[in-house]
User: Fold Recombination protein MgsA from Trujillonella endophytica.
Amino acid sequence: MTSLFDEPAGQEPGAVDPGAPLAVRMRPRSLDEVVGQQHLLGPRSPLRRLVEADEPMSLVLYGPPGTGKTTLAHVISLATKRQFVQLSALDSGVKEVRAVIASAKRELTYASRRTVLFIDEVHRFSKTQQDSLLSAVEDRIVSLIAATTENPFFSVVSPLLSRSLVLALQPLDDDDVRTLLRRALTSDRGLDGAVTLSAEAQEHLVRVAGGDGRKALTALESGAGAAVAAGAQEIDLATLETAVAQAAVRYDRQGDMHYDVASALIKSIRGSDVDAALHYLARMVEAGEDPRFIARRLVIAASEDIGMADPTALQTAVAAADAVAFIGMPEGHFPLAHAVVHLATAPKSNAVTVAIGESVADVRAGLAGPVPPGLRDAHYSGAKQLGHGGTYRYPHDSPDGIVPQQYPPDALVGRDYYRPTQRGAEGPIAARLGKLRAILRRGR
Assistant:
């Protein structure tokens, strides 16, 4: 069990070691100092009630790295009248959780003091570890503040979610990052005016941060160190680029971002934005995503979003999947890009997707019925006695290769599942399909 942000002996509560990283030194001390997340910081927001009214509630803070989850916990640790305890899911188990709960019960019984328990990376807790919190949270022996970068509806057990308020934190926007940088440059807790930042360097920092406040401050501190070492008073673009060699791609192959970027790739293909699609492909490739996962998504998109508007799209996607398996990475990104360009620029139709979806829905609704007698298997002894196959007409005996005949069950006669568009290759298919259906249903 560890108290959050323990202060060295003789140091005022909330004071920060001047040798601490810049991101730690600049951590807000009140909700009014928090940058961003304005959707969560209104006058009657749950966070303000927890901090200002000391209300007994439990929270799950969900958002990407650097959006302020630990910062909010720090603010609560400074403002609340409760005992504040931190556990990390990386190095804590059921034993540690039970020790915290036992201590919280003693505080409540003998000192009438409640406990706030902050658990970082709660998604790393097993189901058993999360379940061990339930009774203490429900009985309000502890107010839980759980932080996670994973979607809590996938990574946190339902009973714990039902006892907590889920607050989604958003990446900081560019203006928020600029505010953080300006504050860090001038604050006596930060760089205290030791250096300035050129406009070009500031915009590079904003791009590098990608909405991550911690990353912005860490990069600023690195640039400031490089400028001071060179005897300069300004962090210019060249100095900053040297100090921050490359912006890391914000992408967690095991986390929620994995699904967000994959979704953005497919939606960009569906929307025919080839440039955006290539961007998301590049993000996945650079982050080390399994190329087989990317290839599978492209094969699905070829049928789901393009279908018969361009029948060759599926061939290209399957060929890309085979090529990646054959040549491996990094060269495998070429056939993947080939497929992305083909799929994004192809005419689009979801007629195949709609057709199979409606077909499945009817089957699940009970619209099936017996197979028409003429279509039933007639290759076994006694089939003719049952009337199987007797009325079947062989299409190849007709000059056109098609004859009027009932193929669907009675309950589905006349139902059209496949409705082709006029886009791409589906235009001619639509014209032919109208003629086919007219012949098949003649006389009905």
User: Anything to note?
Assistant: The radius of gyration is 31 Å. Residues 1-13, 246-250 have pLDDT under 50 and may be disordered. The longest strand covers residues 142-148.
